[in-house]
Amino acid sequence: MTSVFPWAGAHAALRLAQAVWSREECARLVECVFGLRGRTAALAPQWLTGTVVAIAADMYESRDFSAMPILADALQDAGCDRADILNHCRGPGPHVRGCWVVDLVLNKE
Fold it and tell me: Which has the closest alpha carbon to 75: 94, 57, 56?
């Protein structure tokens, strides 16, 4: 049966996350997905090298975000100097599909 409340699935997912992760990890998860609020939502085109896009696409498709620090290195090599992006990629996570940095790289909304 489908819930009449569209947010009910998200609430259940958060409750499950809280059962698995600490409060701090849950806060980082929310920041991973919703962290873009108040930030400029654009990447310089020269930062979107083939390597950067390939790393992000591989993580997105595989749902394995262990390469986030490698994405940070690739972005930095491409000239990215935005501390919010680089720090997020190098942060402890957890990182998940919907990560604001990966979504920016892949031009997802």
Answer: 56
